């Protein structure tokens, strides 16, 4: 009975994880592709297919415009195929383009102006950012925010804060000129600044003082791998008077949601920059396996609210990654269009083909590497790498 119960529990947990993952990824992918679709339609481009997922079609139907809407077997992305596209990556179909009538060219993607093509391509990432802003704003408006004053209760002995001269009861006002409204703001700014000199303005018993501090580097385990963060060694005040609940007007919530979205963008760019310079670990690069794991954990611990927040975070990440200037991604297309706008004519078919092949190789390598990270993350405790 215990064995059967364990198997049943494991199966239920796996199904719950997969379901959570599919919900998160489907929402993010659908919104991204709908951005392309919506702007494409507004620009007068014909749409052959709108697919959530790749591979064989599982379920589909045609709308009154002749677009095939479908759910496909491999739920790791999606695509919108416009008239004139050879494949899901919007590579021009050179074979059919030359045989198109004038009316077909009018609704064909490759024959649109550079401005229209760029708008259609950029619409996917923009839709992801708008989704994140909407989610963060909605959560702020409905739930408000509990704010803990950035007041210090304890300075840990031997810490960077002690070396800098910070003291108990100090109230942190700003860091490097950026206003600090809560202890969470303080943690965010410090965590991404390991080894960097920070200028802190503090209120010490009514007197404003300026202090220089350099956060220590610490490596900690997260669901997405080992993360290197900066620490000052401060503990927040536990005084109930330092805790307040903030409610937002609709405009205030929109501002808070926009700032939260920008924070995720800023943190992602910061991570990529530090990864390139060797100051961050590549094991945080996650593929579908680990994202599925995190989706299940978040849904289990944080419920619907946690899952919705994860959708927002992943939406920002996917939107930003798609803007990287790698051929095959949206950013690669935009790079080609920028070159076309400068030259007055598009790159040659051969040059574009080489670019798409390089982009495909880069994307496949990243997928393989991130999947290997996922597998190693699962196996690490059994290989002696965990405690």
Give an account of the 3D structure:
- With 387 residues, the chain is of the alpha+beta class.
- It folds into three domains: 44-111, no CATH class; 114-144 and 248-387, no CATH class; 146-246, PDZ domain (Pdz3 Domain, Roll).
- The chain is built from ten helices and twelve strands.
- It has helices at residues 2-42, 94-97, 102-106, 114-143, 160-164, 183-191, 250-276, 288-322, 330-343, 349-379, and strands at 47-62, 68-82, 145-148, 152-155, 171-175, 178-179, 198-204, 207-213, 216-222, 225-231, 234-236, 243-246.
- Strands 6-5-7-8 form a four-stranded antiparallel beta sheet. It has a two-stranded antiparallel sheet with strand order 1-2. Strands 3-12 form a two-stranded antiparallel ribbon.
- Strand 5 (171-175) and strand 6 form a beta hairpin.
- Helix 1 runs parallel beside helix 8 (288-322) and helix 4 (114-143) crosses helix 9 (330-343).
- The longest helix is centred in the first third of the chain and has 41 residues, at 2-42.
- The protein is elongated.
